[in-house]
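The following block was generated as part of the benchmark described in Methods. Ligand: zinc ion.
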Amino acid sequence: MTVREQVAAAGARVRSKRGSVLMTILSVLLPWRAWFMRAAWTTLGRTIYAPTWIDVAGSLEPYRSILEHELVHVRQWRRWWLVYPISYLLLPLPIGLAWWRWRWEREAYLVQLRAGTSVEHVVDTLWRHYGWPWPRWAMRRWFRRALARGPS
Ligand SMILES: [Zn+2]
């Protein structure tokens, strides 16, 4: 199955952040505007927003592992509805101690770890770009144990 077919099967769609009024408004509210628009993928409900430079009409295969990560978030939205974004953004703290963000992201990052990304790289990404959600040693340990258990 192509990744585009996987997205469609999940009832989701991929849009560019370029030309999206919603993403433009969000980016203005964030201190890291350029990164948000040009590097970050963002999933809201069933819509996966791609960074502005990506041609979403072209092949999505180069972004397969990222899209599989975002599809985990589509399922989280569907299953948990508002519990997901509220806990993701705020609980117990917006930054520094965001256990729920770590909990949602670890499920999504497992997809990329199983596709070959290193634990160290993922822990570093979570630490730098997700507001220091959980201690690095604890994230490392959780991922190593999850990988040792194998696919659930
Ligand atoms: Zn994610």
